[in-house]
Design goal:
single chain; six-stranded parallel beta sheet
């Protein structure tokens, strides 16, 4: 028997091995120890055949199986193989992505349990051998005489460490022995569902629509304005799923959202919950993975990679904030967790719920084809009302460190009225540029085509692209004149607000201020307790947080996405403005949103103010359809980078020339062209865009074309990758 094994290596192929003579049968989906070069590695068997393209005599043999049982159920294994083919990525790396690190290193699939039992000698005359003063040893023996075997922590009132020392002493005397117990399938843990608040008519309709599809595939869109109670719909749908004895998988875009989700779920369900995200230790992640796989965890909450979590009895998948770019992996295996959640639900014949106040245009287009699966929540829950939005014209209003006079007056007014205020700026650090007004010098990264950001509190310059950290300087290196920071980051806004409003407790939330584990949760809790009155932050504040006392939101720079070359920039800007605006006025108090801009007449901003996200999305979808961009077309991006400036463009020109002629009638190749940031981390980058009218035409082209690209000699001088359905064109 020949085994086709997927190994974590950057090669788009399986590796053939022979089955060792006399070895137990090895199943598809099982992990094996395999020789690979001079190493011993863990691979996963994907094929069993009686032939190989290589001479069988030259094939090496599998060393052994790891578990004697498949790691993945057939449906999940097929999903991983499909994902490797769809995203055109090495299947070994795809499977490695789905495994916690200890399993990639050979840890057992099921946690082994060490148990203890008396030896025949111990059972017959241990008590006779032990002196009466050895009370602890005699107690352990007496306990085991009443049992066939036991774990150390089951023995004696002290249990655990106390019993373990006695057991080891008895083991040296030949009176007890340890053994590894066969794993026991976890029982389906009982669940108690606690009562929640009553649902309004729209929420109840959404729950009934989802419940009606349990046990079958349906891709629901829960399109609800911020504060409309989408989480309550999730909770009720999950309650129905648990009542059927099934599990629910809930995905959130970022770690920052998982603590509040976990709290909401624990307040409603007395049930085991597994958490999966990158902030866990390897052992914590493995424990959660095992609990989901054996069914002992009834609810699984996680971020992007949780889409690959094995489930014993899957019943429902929920993708919260489905529009969020964080669901797209941007390095290595570039998959979309949202799209894979839909495919997985389809293969499992279970419903998936995509929830958002600002759905992606792809999701909206899909919902238009199945309107029976679209549930709208157009009103905020309870007495809350939508916030009042208005523009602040930066051309006619004075600014103090980036905050316009009308905004400063509004902040004072809301603070005096007992409200909280949030200022949103998606730029961390103190200032984006350190500049010399005498000669025009500016601090630039030596390895990237980017300015260095000044982080004043740490007195350092930092490149936000490659991580370079040169020391901050006071004098221009060219003319020795004093340099000055130009522009605003969250640090500088924080400094200005502390000076202007010294009586208002302030907190800043960005990746620099909340680095340590638990720090973000601590700050958010202080905000909810109204111990923080002023809040400054980046994109981390826009997603799903509920601040009941927040009455004013100030968007400091709304112009960043208005004039981008990326066709998705306007969609991202609209989503950001609507999401951050939705943090205001979520309880009974009215909310206000001020959007600072130097382009108050821009059609996008005017459309958002007059018609909201609905109006923007309708116009954007029409524009995309007329111009032939997603969701009315499919894209792939071939990227290349190298230390030598000319190498990426040389490789991409060769790749373009290798395109099959018969496919070019359907598929267009745009480029190659330098990447918008041509040099990053010391490497020069370029890209070639593939544009196709449909999924099938794109996949047919890629299958043929990439085989030719892999064989190009120029490919050996660059690092290249393919990104199917790219979310960012740079």
């Amino acid at each position: 028997m020949i085994l086709g094994v997927a190994i974590d290596a950057p090669l788009r192929r399986l590796f053939d091995y022979r089955t060792p003579e006399g070895a137990p049968p090895i199943q598809v989906g099982e992990r094996v120890w395999a020789p690979f070069g001079h190493r011993r590695v863990v691979g996963v068997v994907l094929e069993q055949r009686d032939y190989s393209d290589a001479p069988v005599a030259k094939l090496r043999s599998i060393l052994s199986g790891v578990d004697g049982a498949p790691t993945f159920d057939p449906a999940l294994l097929q999903l991983l193989v499909w994902a490797a083919e769809y995203y055109r990525h090495p299947v070994g790396e795809v499977i490695a992505t789905a495994l916690p690190a200890p399993l990639r290193a050979g840890a057992p699939l099921v946690q082994a349990q060490i148990r203890w039992r008396l030896t025949p000698t111990g059972r017959n005359n241990a008590l006779a051998q032990l002196p009466k003063r050895a009370a602890r040893l005699r107690g352990v023996v007496e306990f085991l005489l009443q049992r066939i075997d036991a774990a150390a922590d089951e023995i004696g009132a002290g249990g655990g460490a106390a019993a373990l020392g006695a057991l080891r002493t008895l083991e040296t005397r030949g009176l007890v022995e340890r053994f590894v117990a066969a794993p026991v399938q976890a029982a389906c843990a009982p669940v108690r569902i606690l009562e929640g608040p009553g649902l309004n008519t729209q929420q109840q309709t959404a729950v009934e629509r989802i419940d009606a599809t349990l046990g079958s595939f349906a891709a629901h869109l829960l399109y609800g304005v911020t504060g409309s109670g989408k989480t309550e719909v999730y909770l009720n749908a999950i309650a129905s799923t648990l009542a059927r004895g099934e599990q629910a998988l809930v995905m959130a875009p970022e770690i920052a959202l998982t603590p509040q989700l976990i709290t909401r779920f624990k307040d409603r369900f007395e049930a085991p919950i597994a958490v999966m995200h990158s902030g866990l230790t390897d052992l914590e992640r493995l424990s959660a993975w095992r609990a989901a796989r054996d069914g002992s965890a009834r609810i699984v909450i996680g971020t992007r990679s949780a889409v690959f979590t094995p489930l014993a009895k899957p019943g429902l998948i929920i993708v919260d904030e489905e529009h969020d770019p964080s669901f797209k992996q941007q390095e290595g295996f570039r998959y979309s967790a949202r799209d894979l959640a839909i495919v997985r639900a389809q293969r499992l014949a279970i419903p998936v719920v995509l929830g958002s106040a600002t759905p992606s245009l792809e999701t909206l287009a899909r919902a238009q084809r199945t309107p029976e699966l679209l549930s709208r929540l157009p009103e905020r829950a309870g007495d809350a009302r939508p916030p009042r939005l208005s523009l602040v014209d930066l051309r006619t209003n004075a600014q103090a460190h980036g905050v316009a006079t009308p905004a400063l007056l509004a902040i004072r007014r809301h603070l005096d009225a007992g409200g909280q205020v949030m200022l949103f700026l998606n730029r961390r650090g103190y200032a984006p540029v350190l500049f010399c007004p005498a000669c025009g010098w500016a601090a630039r990264c030596a390895r990237c085509d980017a300015h260095l950001t000044l982080h004043d509190r740490a007195r350092r310059l930092l490149c936000h692209h490659c991580g370079a950290e040169p020391s901050a300087i006071e004098r221009c290196p060219d003319c020795l004149e004093a340099v000055k920071p130009v522009g605003q980051g969250t640090e500088r806004i924080e400094e200005a607000l502390r000076e202007r409003f010294p009586d208002a407790p302030l907190a800043r939330i960005d990746r620099d201020s909340v680095r340590r584990k638990g720090e973000l949760e601590s700050v958010l809790e202080r905000v909810r307790r109204n111990e923080v009155r002023l809040l400054v932050g980046t994109q981390m504040l826009t997603k799903g947080h509920d601040f009941p006392n927040l009455t004013l939101v100030v968007v400091l720079n709304a112009d960043q996405g208005l004039f981008s070359t990326d066709f998705r920039a306007s969609e991202r800007l609209a989503q950001t403005i609507v999401q951050v605006s939705g943090r205001a006025g979520r309880a009974g108090r009215p909310g206000e949103v001020l959007i600072q801009t130097e382009s108050p007449d821009h059609p996008l901003l005017r459309l958002l103010l007059s018609g909201g996200y609905d109006a923007f999305a309708a116009g954007a979808l029409k524009e995309r359809q007329e111009t032939g961009w997603p969701p009315f077309a499919r894209l792939a991006l071939l990227r290349a980078e190298a230390a030598v400036p000319a190498a990426p463009m040389h490789f991409l020109r060769a790749a373009r020339s290798a395109a099959p002629d018969q496919s070019m009638r359907e598929v267009s190749l745009l480029g190659p062209a330098p990447a918008p940031m041509e040099r990053r981390a010391g490497r020069h980058r370029a890209q070639l865009l593939v544009h196709a009218p449909s999924h099938s035409s794109l996949q047919r082209f890629l299958k043929t074309w990439l085989a030719e690209v892999e064989a190009l000699p120029a490919g050996k001088r660059v690092r290249w990758s393919i990104d199917v359905d790219p979310s960012e064109l740079f």
